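[Discussion] Sanity-checking designs against the backbone

I'm trying to build intuition for which residues belong where. Below is a structure token string of 368 positions. I'd appreciate it if someone posts a full sequence so I can compare it with mine line by line.
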């Protein structure tokens, strides 16, 4: 099976973890500080705060921004559930806006009508490694005095008009095992707001700036030295891995654009996509997918239901109809694009999709 993702762990990562084991400093220490400094540079931000996961980075960023009960946060429904859940963690209400069909990211044209006197923040998601239309989104935020907290959990190294995410305000990253770079589990907030950075650091460590002085209620969401050591070993390779993801994506697109019923992903002009996922639209997705998997291709559906259709949101009474989010959930299929794929693997992916489309058609013709 060609897997949909494969973490790359090389000699540097292994040596770095062993060095931590030998050092006696296992919890939060100098490696975490160094990882924060180097990651802040990559993301173009003044501050970085390392935490336990992408989810905890979003949670802490919202808390540190002072978002809470009674506030509304506008966010896409076509995303991983964590991007909306974090608003609920702090007592705010996620308000869902639709996505642009071409990029699967938050549609600025659908944000404005959802702004109410209670709206405090816009939480766009750079889905599949593709940046949102940050120019339009930050302009709306400025006009309505809203903050922007970016979910960049899938977008390490992505840029918008050559600027990294940090140039557009606070952003949150995940280092989960399948991401473009990993620490196993892990997350990072990056921001140019010194006050927000200080509050996030406090909240991460039991509400304390000084040992055993607890100024606010806080959490224990610190990254370990093991995670930081792996992250430091991965960072210098990210650019090369992202370039390989882009080359793989271009190759897949060249092969797949001729397959009937397939719409390959499009890249927003002026942005650097990092292809966390290579996601096509495909006619009769649910009929084609099993034939793709049967041929040993680890295809997946991200995401089969938009967040507002999840049981935990239906119970809260979310019943809007978001046309493009729902259509994307019915039509998308992600294919392996990760840097470990060989030329032969890429050819197998293209051939498997073409053959699966054929097989699904034959079944339909037979059934007619
Ligand atoms: C868009 C998005 N937001 C948030 C998260 C949460 O990150 P984590 O799994 O590290 O908590 C993820 C990770 O899967 C994600 O893809």
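Best answer:
Here's mine. Compare freely.
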């Amino acid at each position: 099976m060609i897997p949909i993702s494969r973490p790359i762990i090389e000699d540097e990562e292994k040596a770095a973890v062993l060095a931590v084991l030998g050092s006696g400093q296992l919890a939060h220490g100098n490696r975490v500080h160094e990882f924060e400094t180097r990651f802040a540079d990559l993301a173009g931000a003044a501050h970085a705060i390392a935490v336990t996961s992408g989810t905890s980075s979003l949670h802490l960023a919202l808390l540190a921004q002072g978002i809470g009960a009674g506030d509304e946060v506008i966010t896409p429904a076509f995303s991983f559930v964590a991007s909306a859940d974090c608003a609920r963690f702090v007592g705010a209400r996620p308000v869902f806006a639709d996505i642009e069909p071409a990029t699967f990211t938050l549609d600025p044209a659908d944000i404005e009508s959802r702004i109410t006197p209670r709206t405090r923040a816009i939480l766009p998601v750079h889905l599949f490694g593709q940046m949102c239309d940050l120019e339009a989104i930050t302009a709306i935020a400025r006009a309505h005095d809203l903050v922007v907290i970016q979910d960049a959990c899938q977008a390490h190294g992505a840029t918008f008009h050559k600027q990294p995410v940090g140039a557009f305000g606070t952003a949150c990253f995940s280092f989960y095992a399948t991401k473009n770079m990993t620490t196993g589990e892990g997350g990072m907030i990056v921001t140019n707001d010194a006050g927000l950075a200080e509050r996030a650091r406090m909240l991460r460590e039991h509400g304390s700036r000084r040992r055993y002085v607890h100024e606010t209620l806080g959490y224990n969401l610190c990254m370990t030295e093991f995670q930081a050591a792996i992250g430091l070993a991965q960072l210098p390779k990210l650019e090369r891995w992202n370039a390989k993801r882009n080359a793989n994506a271009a190759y897949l697109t060249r092969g797949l654009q001729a397959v009937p019923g397939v719409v390959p992903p499009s890249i927003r002009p002026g942005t650097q996509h990092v292809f966390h996922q290579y996601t096509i639209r495909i006619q009769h997705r649910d009929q084609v997918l099993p034939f793709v998997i049967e041929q040993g291709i680890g295809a997946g559906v991200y995401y089969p239901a938009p967040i507002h259709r999840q049981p935990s949101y239906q119970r809260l009474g979310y019943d809007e109809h978001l046309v493009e989010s729902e259509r994307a959930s019915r039509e998308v299929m992600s294919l392996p694009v990760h840097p470990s794929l060989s030329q032969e693997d890429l050819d197998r992916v293209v051939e498997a999709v073409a053959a699966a489309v054929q097989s699904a058609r034959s079944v339909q013709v037979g059934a007619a």
